[in-house]
Write a structure and sequence with these properties.
Elements (H helix, E strand, L loop, with lengths): L9 E6 L4 E4 L2 E3 L6 H12 L3 E6 L12 E4 L3 H12 L4 E4 L6 E3 L18 E3 L3 H6 L7 E8 L3 H11 L4 E6 L11 E2 L1 E5 L4 E3 L3 E2 H12 L7
Parallel strand pairs: 1-4, 1-6, 4-5, 6-9, 9-10
Antiparallel strand pairs: 2-3, 7-8, 10-12, 11-14, 12-13
Helix pairs in contact: 1-5
Bound molecules: ligand PMT.
Ligand PMT binds next to helix 1, helix 3 and strand 9.
Length: 222
C-alpha cells in the first residue's frame, strides 16, 4: 500500500471500555485497554485519513492532539458522540467494548454497606453499531469487532449480518496473545462478500495494518 491510500477519508473509531455508573463512586466496566482502537487510529492517520476517536476511559499514554478526540464514559455518551459524527464519515470502526447492560438507576449517593446482600437491576444499553448500522449511507463502510469465548465464527458472522457491517474482526478469548489488554492480537476477518482471512499472533499495530488492507478489498471502493 502507499503511504496515503486513505487520504481524504474521514474515519470514526470507537475504542476502549464503557463505564456504567451504579452510584457516584462505583461502576460496571470491562478489561478493554484501548490498545487495539488506538493502533487503528495511528494506522489510519499514518495512511492519510482524518481520524475521529471516541474513547471510553483508558489509561494508555496517548497523544490525543493528533486526532479529533472525544472522551466519554457510558455507552449512552458514546452513542450520542458517535451519532453526531456518523453522517460525515466515510468509514466507521467499532472497536469499543461497550457494556451491554447498565444499572437501571444511578443512586444519587454512595450505596451504603449493610448486613443484607445487594442485587442490582440492569437494563439493556443502546447497541451503538446496530443503531448506526441502520443509518449507514451508500459508499459508507462499517467495520465491527467480535469478542467471543465460544462458537466464535458463527457468532461473529451473525453479528456481521445483524449489525450491517461490511467486515468484522473476530478476536477470541480462547487464543493466547489475543483480545483485551495485551500488545498483540490474533484475528479472523470476515467480509460480507464471503471473503475471509486469518492472522497469526502479531502486534496490534500489525493487525491494524492488516485490517486497513482488508478494508480496501470491500467492493464499495473506499
Ligand atoms: O482495548 P484492548 O484491550 O486492546 O482490546 C481490544 C478489544 C478486544 C476490546 C477489541 O479488539 C474488540 O474486540 N472490541 C469489541 C469488543 C466487543 O464488545 O465485542 P462484542 O462482540 O460485544 O460487540 C460486537 C460489536 O458491536 C463491536 O464492534 C462493538 O463495538 C459493537 N457494540 C457492542 C455493544 C454495544 N452496546 N454497542 C456496540 O457498538
Amino acid at each position: 500500500h502507499t503511504q496515503s491510500d486513505y487520504q481524504n477519508k474521514k474515519v470514526l473509531i470507537t475504542m476502549g471500555p464503557t463505564q456504567e455508573a451504579m452510584d457516584p463512586v462505583r461502576f460496571i466496566s470491562n478489561h478493554s485497554s484501548g490498545k487495539m482502537g488506538y493502533a487503528l487510529a495511528k494506522a489510519f492517520q499514518a495512511r492519510g485519513a482524518e481520524v475521529y476517536v471516541i474513547s471510553g476511559p483508558i489509561s494508555l499514554n496517548v497523544d490525543k492532539s493528533e486526532f479529533h478526540w472525544t472522551d466519554v464514559k457510558s455507552a449512552k455518551e458514546m452513542y450520542h458522540a458517535a451519532h453526531k459524527l456518523h453522517g460525515l464519515m466515510d468509514i466507521c470502526v467499532f472497536a469499543a467494548a461497550v457494556a451491554d447492560y447498565a444499572p437501571a438507576e444511578v443512586a444519587p449517593e454512595k450505596i451504603k454497606k449493610s448486613e443484607a446482600d445487594l442485587s442490582l437491576k440492569m437494563v439493556k444499553n443502546v447497541d451503538i453499531a446496530f443503531e448506526l448500522g441502520k443509518l449507514k449511507h451508500p459508499g459508507q463502510l462499517h467495520v465491527g469487532f467480535a469478542l467471543e469465548t465460544q462458537n466464535e465464527s458463527e457468532n461473529a458472522k451473525a453479528k456481521l449480518d445483524k449489525k450491517n457491517f461490511d467486515l468484522i474482526v473476530l478476536n477470541s478469548m480462547r487464543e493466547t496473545g489475543a483480545g483485551f489488554k495485551v500488545d498483540t492480537n490474533k484475528v479472523h476477518i470476515y467480509q460480507s462478500s464471503g471473503h475471509s482471512v486469518s492472522s497469526e499472533v502479531d502486534t496490534k499495530a500489525k493487525i491494524a495494518e492488516l485490517i486497513l488492507d482488508q478494508i480496501k478489498l470491500v467492493p464499495i471502493g473506499v
